[in-house]
Write a structure and sequence with these properties.
There is one protein chain. By secondary structure, the protein is an all-alpha fold. Among the domains are: about 120 residues, Helix hairpin bin (Helix Hairpins, Orthogonal Bundle), CATH 1.10.287; about 35 residues. Helix 3 packs antiparallel against helix 4 and helix 7 crosses helix 8. The longest helix is centred in the middle third of the chain and has 35 residues. The radius of gyration is 57 Å and the shape is elongated. The termini are far apart. About 5% of the residues are buried. One of its GO terms (cellular component) is post-mRNA release spliceosomal complex. Pfam families: Isy1. Belongs to the ISY1 family. InterPro entries: Helix_hairpin_bin_sf, Isy1, Isy1_sf. Keywords: Nucleus.
Length: about 300
């Protein structure tokens, strides 16, 4: 190790190093304003330099052990370089170069999801956080999603979704329901017809057996017909008794008149008088009617 240091400090080596530095071009400094650059290649080179600086600082800011102050300073420096990079990208476009801003990186949360934070923490539009800076106090809350509150639906929101489909008016439009219900409906109709025929046959047998003498021990079928016969006969007898009671009550009922009613002759006279008055009012004048009324009064004629 000592031998190498001696070589580096020898007069010949120092002379060679000095000559090599003299041959090198002077180190150029990046222009403060991107508008001062007139060459597209130079502008692209300065942009690449800024990208390398951003990469180094982003790699450094991943270390959570740097401390809060160092992390905030690094994050500020990265944002400053990003703004400078955007200036050079606009200058490259002005000089006729490609537009690098189309494929710029988006801001993400702690889980890597792209989010839209236009002005977090009031540090200016487009300010971003990188690496461990996202976990700093006051910054983590910017990336946390607020709990979703379930909005209570109003009566209008409930009823505006109700249409003809809700009430089942469109169930048969696709034809599927008709294919499924067709056989089931036909089967139900056949069962109803068979049941009606069976009951009708029992009623006929009951009516026929009402006129005949039915023995008790002829079998189960005879017992069923006998029971049906008794029910039918009993029902007919009950209806007949109810009908006779109603007729008897109507005959026994007397109409009591509390006011005197006119007879047929009185009614005819009143109708004739009414027709006469209608004809007089139609063809006679008011003066004639008054004279007739006065004459009746003078002669003491009531009608």
């Amino acid at each position: 190790m000592a031998r190498n240091e001696e070589k580096a400090q020898s007069m010949l080596n120092r002379f060679i190093t000095l000559k090599a530095e003299e041959k090198k071009k002077p180190k150029e400094r990046r222009p403060y304003l991107a508008s001062e650059c007139r060459d597209l290649a130079e502008a692209d080179r300065w942009r690449q330099q800024i990208m390398r600086e951003i990469g180094r600082k982003v790699a450094e800011i991943q270390n959570e052990g740097l401390g809060e102050h160092r992390l905030r300073d690094l994050n500020d420096e990265i944002n400053k370089l990003i703004r400078e990079k955007s200036h050079w990208e606009r200058r490259i476009v002005e000089l006729g170069g490609p537009n690098y801003a189309k494929h710029s990186a988006k801001m993400t949360d702690l889980e890597g999801n792209i989010i839209d934070v236009p002005n977090p923490s009031g540090r200016g539009p487009g300010y971003r956080y990188f690496g461990a800076a996202k976990k700093l106090p006051g910054v983590r809350e910017l990336f946390e999603k607020p709990p979703e509150l379930r909005k209570r639906r109003t009566r209008y929101d409930i009823y505006k979704r109700i249409d003809a489909s809700y009430y089942g008016y469109r169930d048969e439009e696709d034809g599927i329901l008709e294919k499924v219900e067709g056989p089931a409906e036909e089967e139900m109709r056949m069962r109803a017809v068979e049941e009606w025929k069976r009951m009708e046959a029992i009623r006929k047998e009951a009516r026929k057996g009402a006129k005949e003498v039915v023995s008790v021990g002829v079998g189960v079928g005879a017992e069923v017909l006998f029971e049906e016969e008794e029910d039918v006969v009993e029902e007919e007898r009950r209806e007949e008794r109810e009908r006779e009671d109603i007729e008897r009550k109507e005959k026994e009922r007397e109409f009591v008149v509390h006011v005197p009613l006119p007879d047929d002759k009185e009614i005819e006279r009143m109708v004739l008088e009414k027709k006469k008055m209608e004809l007089l009012s139609k063809y006679a004048s008011d003066s004639l009617m008054e004279e007739q009324t006065e004459a009746k009064v003078m002669l003491n004629i009531q009608h």
